[in-house]
Amino acid sequence: MTATKKLYIKTYGCQMNVYDSERMSEALGGAGYETTDSPDGADMILLNTCHIREKAAEKVYSELGRFKRLKAENPELKIGVAGCVAQAEGEEIMRRQPLVDLVVGPQSYHRLPEMEARTRGGERAIDTDFPEEDKFEKLRSRPKARRGPAAFLTVQEGCDKFCAFCVVPYTRGAEMSRPVDRVMSEARDLVERGVREVTLLGQNVNAYHGQGPTGEYSLARLIRTLSDIDGLERIRFTTSHPNDMTDDLIAAHGECEKLMPYLHLPVQSGSDRILKRMNRSHTAESYLRLIERIRAARPDILISGDFIVGFPEETDADFQATMDLIEAVHYGQAFSFKYSTRPGTPAAERAQVDPDVATDRLHRLQALISRQQRAVQDSMVGREVSVLFEKPGRLPGQMVGKSDHLHAVHVADSNASVGEISRVRIEDSGPNSLAGVIL
Ligand code: SAH
Ligand code: SF4
Ligand code: F3S
C-alpha cells in the first residue's frame, strides 16, 4: 500500500471547470491522491485554467511563477496545467515554464493517472488531443462519499456556434451530448451521496441531444426524465443559447415542478448590427420575443444574461441599443465584460474600440444591471420561497442556502440542517443576500 499523496487543484473559469476539477481529483484518487486546500506540502499541483479573456489566461503564468519556491523545497512536486489554456497554449506553456511537468486538455482528463505516472518517471507529459474515445466512459466511477447538497453535472460539452469573439469552440471542441443512461446513473449516484439539486452543464446545454432508451432526447425530455428520480428535488441548467430555446424547453419551465425558475440566457448585445458581426444569428427583437414566451410559460422566472461591451466597431448607438434591451428585459442577474481580443478568433482582426470608451460603457451598463438586480432581489421581501440549505452561516445557529430563484438566503436561530429544503418568508434584502424566517 503506497502512502497517500496530496493533490492541490486551483480552478478558474466556468462551472464546467468546477465539475472537471472534481472529476480529475476523483481520477487521481485512484492513483493514491487525496485533495488538500493548500499548495504548501502538496505532491501535485494542478491549475485548471480558463482562456476566455486575456486576463484569465495571463493569470496562469503568474501563478506558475509562484510555485518556483515550492518546487525548490520539494523537487518531487509535480506541476500540471489543465483546462482551456492548456488546450490553447499547451506547447507554449511547456516552453515558457520549465517548472511544468504535465499539460492536459479538457478532452483527455481520463488519461491523467497514466500521465501522472509518466511524470513520476521523470518525463514531461502533454496531451491536448481530441481523442475518439469518450472521456466520460473512461473516467473512474464516482466514489460513494457524502458531499454537499448542490452539484454540477456535465451533460453536453463543446460548441459549434463560433461566435466571432469566443475561444470555446477551439478549446472544448465540437458539440457532444452524453447518453441519457449515463446522465441518469450519475444523477442517481449524486442523490445517494446527499445531493438534492443538480445543475446540468454544457457550453450550449440546450443543444443537448443525447441517445436515450427510446431514441434521441432533447434537454427538456432529459429534465422530465431526471424529475422521476426520488430525492432529487431541484434541477437547473446552464448555459443556453437563444437559438436552441425550443418550444418543449419553454413548456418545461411551466410544467416541470423540479425545474427552478431561473434561466441564464446570454444575448451579448442589443444591436442587430453588432449581433450580426458577432455571428450570433439572432436579433435583439427575436431575443425579446423569446423572453416574452418564456415568461408566459413561467411568469416569475428570473432572467440572467451575459454582455460584451466594446466589441470591434461598436458605436454609441450600438451601445445604447444594448442599454435599451436591458431596460426591456429587466434582468435579475447579469455578467458583463469588456471585449477581450482572443488570438485566432475572427473578431481579433477588426478595428478595436478605444479602451477608455469601452470602460465607460462597461461602468454604465453595470450600474443599470445592479439597479435591476437589486430591484428584483428587493421584490422578494414579504414573499415565501423555498430554500435549500447548503452550509452554516458565520453566526451561531445561522444557516445559508439558495432560493429557487438562486438568491442567497440566510436564516437566524434555525434548527435546519444542510441539505434540508424549507419554506422561508423573506423579511429583508441586503447588499448580497436575503434574510428570512423558516415557516
Ligand atoms: N458557452 C457559454 C459561455 C461562454 S463564455 C455561452 O455561450 O454563453 C461566458 C461569457 O464570456 C460569454 O457569454 C461572453 O459574454 C463572455 N466572453 C466570451 N468571449 C469573450 C471575449 N473575447 N471578450 C469578452 N467577453 C467574452
Ligand atoms: Fe462561445 Fe458563442 Fe459558443 Fe457561447 S455560443 S461558447 S459564446 S462560441
Ligand atoms: Fe473558460 Fe474554458 Fe470555461 S475558456 S469559461 S474554462 S469553457
Automatic annotation (TrEMBL):
[4Fe-4S] cluster 1 binds at C14, C50, C84. [4Fe-4S] cluster 2 binds at C159, C163, C166. CDD domains: Radical_SAM. Transmembrane segments: none annotated. Keywords: 4Fe-4S, Cytoplasm, Iron, Iron-sulfur, Metal-binding, S-adenosyl-L-methionine, Transferase, tRNA processing. InterPro entries: Elp3/MiaA/NifB-like_rSAM, Methylthiotransferase, Methylthiotransferase_CS, Methylthiotransferase_N, Methylthiotransferase_N_sf, MiaB_methiolase, rSAM, rSAM_horseshoe. It holds the Pfam family UPF0004. Residues 378-439 form the TRAM domain. One of its GO terms (molecular function) is tRNA-2-methylthio-N(6)-dimethylallyladenosine(37) synthase activity. Residues 145-375 form the Radical SAM core domain. Binds 2 [4Fe-4S] clusters. One cluster is coordinated with 3 cysteines and an exchangeable S-adenosyl-L-methionine. Its main location: cytoplasm. Residues 5-121 form the MTTase N-terminal domain. SUPFAM superfamilies: Radical SAM enzymes (SSF102114). This is tRNA-2-methylthio-N(6)-dimethylallyladenosine synthase. The gene is miaB.
